[in-house]
Amino acid sequence: MKKLHLIRHAKSSWQEPNLADIDRPLSQRGVRACEVMAPEIVKAGCELETVYCSPASRATSTAQHLSQAVAADTVLRVDRTLYTFDGQRLLAWCRGLDDRLENSVTEVTIIGHNPALTDFCNFISDSELDNIPTCGYVQLWLDCARWQDLSSGSATLKAFLYPKQFK
């Protein structure tokens, strides 16, 4: 069984409005959300060992803060393709994962952006989430043996966690 862990980047700062979108850092609220969410994400079954991440500053910072909060030895793999807001592009990226790599790649963790994450989650799973909020976490169990077989309804939502649940 394959598992997919989706994490939306934590809340970003808008203090410098002239920064390019990709360069926006985390806000203090975002950093605090990572500290709250990291142990909950690990309890849910995401070990944060290998994380595929958008190159956006807020996404890579989210990965780093989550990892630090639980002292995980995370391997961060930044992939420009994950800087997307389109669920179908995220689906194509996941379908392109190589089943022969890293012990058959049975679990993948992605840190990315909305609306791509929410749209992708709703397309491949039995869920109808309105929104994965900032620093929100979704765990999906896949009913397919190969990544290339991901399709509508091929996953089951097993966990949906977000910071306001733990305040």
UniProtKB/TrEMBL annotation:
Pfam families: His_Phos_1
SMART domains the UniProt entry points to: PGAM
CDD domains referenced in this protein's UniProt entry, alphabetically: HP_PGM_like
Superkingdom of this protein's organism: Bacteria
Binding site residues for substrate: 58
Record-given protein name: Phosphoglycerate mutase
